[in-house]
Amino acid sequence: MSAPLARALAERNYDRPTPVQLAVLTEEAAGRDLLVSAQTGSGKTLAYGLALAKDLLDGIERFERAGAPLALIVAPTRELALQVQRELAWLYEHADGRVVSCVGGMDPRREQRELAAGAHIVVGTPGRLCDHLRRGRLDISELKAVVLDEADEMLNLGFREDMEFILETTPETRRTLLFSATFPRGIVALAKQYQQQAFRIEVAGDEGGHADIEYRAIRIAPADVEHAVVNVLRFFEAPSALVFCSTRDAVRHLQAALLERGFSVVALSGELTQNERTLALQSLRDGRARVCVATDVAARGIDLPSLDLVIQADLPNDAEVMQHRSGRTGRAGRKGTSVLLVPPARRRRAELLLNLSGIDAVWGTAPQADEIRKLDHERMKDVLFTEETTADDLALAQALLAERSAEDIAAALARLYRARLPSPEDIIDPGERTGRPRDDRGRDNVRAPGGDDRPERRPKSGKSSSKHGMAEGSVWFRANIGRRKNAEARWLLPMICRRGGIDKGDIGAIKIMDTTTEFEISERVADSFAAKIKRPDKEDNIRLEPMADAPQRLAPSEERSKPPRRESGDSDHRERRDDRPREAGFKPRSKAFGERGPKFDDAPAFGKKKKHKNKPGHAGQPPAVTAWPVKGAPGKKAKKKHRG
Fold it and tell me: pTM of the entire structure?
């Protein structure tokens, strides 16, 4: 390694390379295209920074005057691109390397001036780099290497065309390094098309997930998400923590709730400008803020030196996202904790995500208020007596002792210490897994009527959960959303569970109609459900209310009544058929024939009947149909002529 790079590493106390850094520096990888897979937080940025050194410096220790860039590095998000720019800037600092960033949200004219002044390495996001290339502002004639960092994430974000444009525009003699957390089909296809005999490197941890991260899964009631976040933050008291939400609205809501409780918190989401995002990250790095609430895309590439805690307030959609979230902590050999908040309705999904990731999480309940207060007492002793006592401190203490007792002074000190801490919340433990058992294929097992133990598939929306409804008394409720607004049981069911703080085993039939949805709730939890759905909620546009015209609180021994009749506004198919314009000879089908459709006068009856001989007067033969000739109607020959 050249002396300037070794000096930069020594100043940052890098005395032992990570596995991925060792892998890219082997003789087999030297000078070749690389296809590298390694977990997030494993030191990939420094790895390709070291791997490019021989190509960029070309036998010399220091760069010559900056001109056209020698290396181009593409990252999926602004935060990651700026982080890479900072990492490579200090790595090549003593080699006189100039690293320029080109990212969305920044002033393109300033970037144009920096590119015109010359750069050895350019780091940017796909869209902004393509814009500079198309406008002729980025000179790639001297380019020796291209790096695609987090290539799988760029595919997920829809940057495939931009990546292909960059790879097709750059010189064919370049060296291409592709770094990805996983190797999906899109990445393999991209490597085959744009790399030449790439050397494949896969660096996996010794254990599932991150070996330096402790995973905890916490059972919570659906309405206790905010309270659980508060108590987890208070329990761990990490210097900085990252809380993940699935949507921008959820980020805003949770940030406001934490600010109200006294936390120093910032938010990161796609709706913020680049300046706002930069200020938020800077406040986390200098300690002015301790908690960051963010979405997945906004948090990609965040590297905070003291991030010890990650809370996943909303469960991710797949295992890779969960690992990327958790990978924000436990980086470069540091220890970290990743906490998943799991309501009862999401328990199975959480178990599936953990199994797919090979992670053995510790299941438990949210920290209780008494536990947190006990920890506060212990921490107060450590905080108050860490610094040496000065003469001024002793003089003030003696003055206080002359006026007050030692017990009063200690109590006042405890009150002052607690006043700066957010109060812990009281949380109800939802208990272990409840509801219907499941078979190996993940289907609900419902005991069939009559004592048969064979599994019966849970019906789709609009059908009863079994022939005789729920096994216990129930109460009917109504939601003001129906088929016209794309209501579906697959998202109505978890929403009802969350709003009412119940498990899906407490829900019976769900009937989705045109403008409303009616659903059945177990009588055992009906009172608490009715009280909880009155509380303010982020989905207040969907109103849940008891049905006044439905049979309420049926005893288990009583014969179950039919579901409540539909509202007058919800017309069924028969009403719609009767409203059709009637043609001559049209008659509604009589009740004797069921609902098989209209019947026309003087038409033979249709249906599956026993075949009969075509003779008049034969038993079972339908009434004879008389045909009258129409004057001027074409005969057989005339019809052929007419068709011709």
Answer: 0.54
